[in-house]
Amino acid sequence: MSKIIEWIGKTFINFLSEAGRMLLLLIEVVKEALKPPIKLERIFIQMEFIGVKSLFVVILVSTFTGMVLALQTYTGFRRFSAESMVGAIVALSLCRELGPVLTSIMVTARAGSAMAAEIGTMRVTEQIDALTVMAVNPVKYLIVPRIIASIFVIPILTIISDYTGIVGGYIVGVKLLNINEGVYINRTIDLLEMSDIFNGLFKSIIFALLLSLIGCYKGYYTKGGARGVGKATTEAVVLSCVVIFIADYVLTSFLF
Amino acid sequence: MEESIIKIRKLCKRFGTQDVLRELDLDIPKGMITVIIGKSGGGKSVLLKHIIGLIKPDSGEIFIDGINIVKEPEDKLNEIRKRFGMLFQEGALFDSMTIEENVAFPLVEHTKLSQAEIKERTKEVLALVGLTGAEKKYPSEISGGMRKRAGLARAIIAKPDIILFDEPTSGLDPIMSAHIDNLIVEIQKRLNVTCIIISHDIQSTFRIAHKVAMLYEGKIIAEGTPDVMKTLDNPYLKQFIEGSSQGPIQVVDNE
Predict the structure, then answer these.
(1) Rounded CA gap, B74 and B57, in Å?
(2) From residue B207, how far is each of B26, B163, B179, B204, B225 by CA, in Å?
(3) CA-to-CA distance for B92 and A133, rounded, in angstroms?
(4) Would you tell me how many other CB atoms lie within 10 Å of the CB of residue A183?
(5) Which of A197, A243, B161, B170 is the 20 to 30 A CA-CA neighbour of B179?
(6) A48 touching B, CB under 8 A?
């Protein structure tokens, strides 16, 4: 019994100390981000990696999500002759929920993991020490550009994801399931409000901050060689995904 | 005794339950090569990292030209760090950059030199370490010896006063080791810098050192010129210099 309590206590303390260290890192990131000189080049390089290179996979995933969403709602809604609502449901689910979440998860898998692995490798091969020795702040040099780039680029990816998802839903709904095109589009436009889109984008900014902070944090505090890098990468992806889903619920219940 | 550029006083550092440095005192003479020897895992790297502020001590003081760096805030510390160059054990080159970009890095970050000037300086130091022609290669494409030389080029490009070397010859063949030694001696003479080298390569140590200090159990147990060190009657030092497994130094660590 006392072992169990000990374990719970230890886990809880570990959790708190990790959250604390992450917050301290975030504070340092903000401080360093505001301190001149600001080098845009590094931010643009990260934007290309996090944004442009994630574009294809985000489009692919959201198109198919839109398509399956149309298919599923159609099957359900036909039972009470509400097929005309399929378009609106697809658009609402995507903009409010699936666009930001799916985009963030895909970026976590692609770029969050890469952040942890790259910064982690730099840690274990003393490249981060080398930066410090050369009087270059590693937080400013490595972490700030990644977090800024994520915050700018993930909302843009989310817009693209919303759009391609809606297009996917339209193709299935109108072209394959023969829902009347005019009704489909009109219902979508009637029911979807600007606030749905903006709240979704706001969520995506928070997710972007979380996933890039976690990826960089896990990499920055990597210990113990190749195995440590592997561990950091796995933990970054798992923790980012969990935190994104929790934050999603919390934000949704407060925002909408 | 000559003028000291670095003075270390009563430096203590503990990791977990292990005392790595115990009230260590050491003076580093200016414009000379000081080699710190000691067994692997004995805290030599930790000592070196203290000198450049990568690790903060639990207690004690480190004076660099009279400034106690232990008490300096990070931005002041960065100004002091610009006086240093450091060669890491594995080179610690940035693997996302070419050799040329790696070597030019300190100049790109901290000076307002034009691209042409930086290129010129880079070419100069690469020639000095014998790496002309490898400019466009990536660190993963060259040998360990070349990586060390590139690391050395990066350490000296900003014309530091003090250069730190973390085992510059470990993992190299004897000929490459001798070559690196010659490079260190040549660079020290040419730039008139202070060099601090940590090493367990005895042959190389006596070839290049002006001063040798032996670290054992977290303290400097013997120091002096190489000639003096050879004559000292210290059983630990003798065993280390002779490279014998018999003697007061235990091979098995009780870490």
Answers:
(1) 15
(2) 21, 18, 12, 5, 12
(3) 11
(4) 15
(5) B161
(6) no
Inter-chain residue contact A134 with B105, CB threshold 8 Å = yes
Summarised one tens digit per residue, pLDDT across range B223-239 is 888 888 888 888 888 88
Domain spans in chain A, listed from the N-terminal domain onward: 41-255
Q: Quick check: A41 contacting B, CB < 8 Å?
A: no
Inform me whether the C-beta atom of residue A16 falls under 8 Å from chain B C-beta atoms. Answer: no
3-class DSSP assignment, residue A29 = helix
Put simply, the answer to whether B84 touches A133 (Cβ < 8 Å) is yes
8 A C-beta contact, residue A109 and residue A58 = no
CB atoms within 10 A of CB B140: 8
- ipTM of the complex in this document: 0.86
The answer to whether the beta carbons of residues A191 and A88 sit under 8 Å apart is yes
Residue B66: CB atoms within 10 Å: 8
Write down the pTM of the prediction: 0.86
**By CB neighbour count within 10 A (0-12 exposed, 13-18 middle, 19+ buried), where does B137 fall?**
middle
Q: Among the residues of chain A, which ranges form H helices?
A: 2-34, 40-50, 55-77, 86-93, 99-107, 113-124, 127-133, 138, 144-170, 181-191, 194-220, 225-255
| DSSP track, B90-128 | T----TTS-HHHHHHHHHHHH----HHHHHHHHHHHHHH
For residue range A10-66, list pLDDT tens digits in order: 999 988 998 999 999 999 999 988 988 888 889 999 999 999 999 999 999 999 999
Q: What's the Cα-to-Cα distance from A87 to each of A11, A65, A78, rounded to whole Å?
A: 46, 13, 13
Count Cα neighbours of B100 within 13 Å in the Cβ-side half-sphere.
13
